[in-house]
């Protein structure tokens, strides 16, 4: 959708490109939004950090925050823009000048001050403010892909899956028949935890979460509806409480 509509914006927008930014905005009413309802975005034909935004037929020229670029689509970090490492600018000019502040190279970005070390923590910068974030349990931050990653994929920065997960996979097929059923990826329960289990991949433990609505059934080592797992009281209580809270939120 974006590509066909880009042509519409491109041909008309080219007329105003030689003007200054202020003049461009002033000139924008010459360019019409192809759709009169809803919110649509269109890449700027020449600049990777700018884009056109149509809100119910009103067109504006927008600029991504520092560290972000425009590619359109889902998963945007802030105001329709994505982290710069995630954007292929193609022929659009790319100008990335860091506006650094404490702990933040760009105003928006993900960083780690423990580069080259195995850590489940990283820094998320928004508007130049750094916030410490933790990876989901059992994962470590991979600075090269800016994402949390299985520690067995991060041996080059000193991660060992055993250290991060606190579990050591047995070598060979496990003696427990339920665990062995999942060979070559045998599973193990985590004592006292019915939301996650261990799955061994190439002999390395990975912590797998059942997700929001399911819990681990120890007797099968599968994720099930909590109703089917009566021994997981903790999660059931918490679920009941959160359902109650949601209900009272709605009535308030
Ligand atoms: C667009 O118009 C609809 C209907 O009038 C309104 O509900 C909605 O909030 C508007 N959206 C924007 C982005 O202005």
UniProtKB/TrEMBL annotation:
Residues 30-91, 101-161, 166-234 form the Chitin-binding type-2 domain. One of its GO terms (molecular function) is chitin binding. InterPro entries: Chitin-bd_dom, Chitin-bd_dom_sf, Chitin_bind-dev_reg. GO terms for cellular component: extracellular region. Pfam families: CBM_14. The keyword Glycoprotein applies. Keywords: Chitin-binding, Disulfide bond, Glycoprotein, Repeat, Signal. Residues 1-22 form the signal peptide. This is Protein obstructor-E-like. The gene is LOC113213759.
């Amino acid at each position: 959708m974006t590509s066909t509509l880009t042509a519409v914006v491109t041909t008309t927008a080219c007329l105003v490109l030689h003007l200054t930014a202020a003049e461009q905005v002033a000139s924008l009413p010459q360019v019409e939004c192809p759709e009169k309802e809803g919110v649509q975005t269109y890449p700027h034909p020449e600049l990777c950090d700018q884009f056109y935004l149509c809100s119910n037929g009103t067109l504006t020229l927008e600029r991504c925050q520092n560290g972000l670029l425009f590619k359109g689509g889902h998963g945007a970090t802030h105001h329709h823009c994505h982290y710069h490492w995630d954007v292929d600018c193609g022929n659009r000019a790319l100008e990335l000048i860091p506006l650094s502040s404490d702990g933040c190279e760009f105003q928006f970005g993900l960083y780690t001050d423990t580069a080259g070390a195995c850590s489940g923590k990283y820094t998320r910068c928004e508007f130049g403010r750094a916030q410490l974030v933790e990876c989901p349990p059992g994962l470590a931050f991979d600075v090269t892909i800016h994402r949390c990653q299985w520690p067995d994929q991060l041996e080059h920065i000193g991660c060992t899956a055993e250290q991060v997960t606190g579990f050591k996979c047995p070598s060979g097929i496990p003696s427990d028949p339920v665990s062995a059923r999942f060979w070559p990826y045998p599973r193990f329960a985590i004592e006292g935890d019915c939301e996650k289990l261990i799955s061994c991949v190439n002999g390395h433990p990975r912590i797998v979460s059942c997700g929001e609505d399911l819990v681990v059934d120890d007797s099968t080592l599968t994720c099930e509806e909590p109703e089917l797992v009566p021994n997981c009281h903790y999660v059931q209580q918490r679920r009941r409480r959160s359902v109650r809270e949601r209900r009272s939120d709605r009535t308030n």
